[in-house]
Amino acid sequence: MVRKLIKNQNSPLLKLTPLFVLIVTTLIVVPLGYILLRSMSVSNRQNLLRFESKVLRLEKAERGSQALEETSRDDPSPASTESKTQPTQTLKGHSSWIYAFAISPQSPILASASYDETIKLWNLDTGSLIKTIQAHGDAVASLAISPDGQTLASGSWDNRVKLWDLATGQLKSTLKGHTDDVKFVAFGPDGQTLVSGSYDGTVVIWDISTGKKIRTFNQKAPIISGTISPDGQTLAIGSNNGQIKLWQLVTGKEIQTLKGHSRTIWAVAFSPDGQTLASGSQDRTIKIWDSSTGKELHTLKGHSKAVFCLTFSPDGRFLATGGYDQTIQLWQVENSQLWQTFKGHKKAIWCLQFSPDGQILVSASADKTIKLWSVSL
Q1: What's the DSSP call for residue 214?
Q2: pLDDT at site 267
Q3: 220 bridge partner residues
Q4: Mean pLDDT across the chain, nearest whole number?
Q5: Which residue has the higher pLDDT, 47 or 230?
Q6: Separation between Cα atoms, residue 273 and residue 342, nearest integer Å
Q7: Which of 122, 138, 154, 163 fits 110 for a cystine, CB–CB 3.0-4.6 Å?
Q8: CA angle 338-344-348, nearest 5°?
Q9: Which helix (H) or strand (E) segment is 374 a member of?
């Protein structure tokens, strides 16, 4: 019938096309869509809703960064030396954003995590890919390697934490306890406990030998980032409300709240001696805090957009930062001066870490690459 109407250009119904489309949409398309939605399993409908929620969250974050870019065009940036150094290696293999990586303290192995739901194991000496692990049912957003270099922990948007044998890539156990994205995982110094933090606002301390919860505490705000002090006594948590909370890890007691940032805290890191804490924010600044008193010591301004990651050099003299503006900035901690700027990534930088000897700085990006930079500190 529709074909006859189209062929008959003088048909009076064609003159009522808008009304005709409205009637068809109301009587056929909408009910059909409803029937299809109802025919989906409960789990599939939940997955669809969770996916839409994550897309909206990413779009909101990107709009926020774009808005910050507009407000920062007239902000002066400190003078620095832009390094002409090219990365010594570029590792390629992931098919989507790389959110996190971890370097083994015992061997030249790097594990990387991606939105493509995989974990890849690399040989840092040769740059070769060792193994690809089909890890989770959603984006893998966080990684940590135990102090003895034997166990790899991963946290995902599928709300789960998994433990892997780093040497073989075999799954050891799956830890279930969160109800939203797992934003960070971190081993305690003894390697016997693992801490995970989630967008659901909870922190869980796990016994990795049994896979059971030791303690759970709720900070009543979505968790974005987290780290454990070198002595294993203090946990620092960054949230989307611009605040950092310090917790006593053994008791789960809140110690203090650090206020100074105006936007989401994307990254937190303790210095190697544990005396200072660094934080990176959506507000484009990095702050250095006295970890015992909570006093703000310095504010570093150099990035033109959100700061997504930061890491101290092994000797604590330098702080490397990266973010949405695609640059890596290397700061002298003692005088808060910007020392060097590295450019090479084509999209946001999500993760940074120094090699154990401090000679190599590793970066991972939304451009699907991992880059190794030779640094002379």
Answers
A1: E
A2: 98
A3: none
A4: 84
A5: 230
A6: 26
A7: 122
A8: 80
A9: strand 369-374
Of all residues in the chain, the percent with pLDDT exceeding 90 is 75
Confidence of residue 85 (pLDDT cuts 50, 70, 90): confident
Tokens representing residue 18 in the block = 């808008």
User: Residues 370, 101: contact at Cβ < 8 Å?
Assistant: yes
Exposure of 99 in the CB half-sphere (CA atoms within 13 A)? 25
Residue with tokens 């008959």: 8
pTM of the entire structure?
Answer: 0.80
Distance between CA 167 and CA 149 in Å, rounded? 9
Q: Which two tokens stand for residue 5?
A: 């109407």
The kind and range of the H/E element at 37 are helix 30-39
| pLDDT value of position 84 | 66
Instruction: Round to whole Å and give the CA distance between 67 and 61.
Output: 10
C-alpha distances in angstroms, 193 versus 105, 119, 151, 173, 315? 17, 22, 11, 14, 25
Residue 270: count of CB within 10 angstroms of its CB: 21
